[in-house]
Amino acid sequence: MSWNVRGLNAPNKRRLIKSQLDLMKCDVLLLQETKLSCQGADFLFSKWKLWNFCVSPSVEASGGLAFLWNDVSTEFKLVVSTPLWMWALSSLHGKTVVFGGDFNAISSDDEKIGGILPNKRILGDFSAFIHNNDLVDCKTLNGLFTWTNRRKDLSQIAERLDHFLVSAAWISSDMDVVASVLPYAGSDHFPIVLSILDDRAPGRSSFKFEPMWF
What we know:
Blueprint (H helix, E strand, L loop, with lengths): L1 E3 L6 H14 L3 E5 L5 H8 L5 E6 L8 E6 L5 E6 L4 E6 L5 E6 L9 E2 L6 H13 L2 E3 L9 E2 L9 E2 L2 E6 H4 L3 E7 L10 E7 L16
Parallel strand pairs: 1-2
Antiparallel strand pairs: 2-4, 3-4, 5-6, 6-7, 7-12, 8-11, 9-12, 10-11, 13-14
């Protein structure tokens, strides 16, 4: 699961995130914009039993990343993280890559409604990044937009800013890769979930992780 939580300093927000994590039974949690220092993140996540974690602290009052995985997640490694928004993960054999997070970018005009027209340069750069790295943008099955300004009618702006990008070779393999949007829960970004099933073992996920900083 990937989620721009817009801060984890409030106790009610922390309880909300933990309840979502328990409900979804995810193997991996990618959080953006935690707004936590290293000390604050260590204090919080050390209380979440059965979960391992590594963090990138906030820059003053913005940003901050947290990568959490459970004890059975052992087949992937963290290869890069940006200071504010995104995680990149790779399989141990190096052939499968997953980028997940708030990219603050759309890949086509139909991924935004309302507000000013999309920035064509940013749109083009993001689309080129996907194409040049042989990635597939996993479209969510149950809704397009992942961010909204929470307004209605003509004042509403909604965009698909959060993405899972996976290796094209993985999509064409025996893996069934499905992305979905979760209901609104305390942030202007909706959580998104990537579910990966191995067709050779129906009903069981093979999407597991090992932490490693490069």
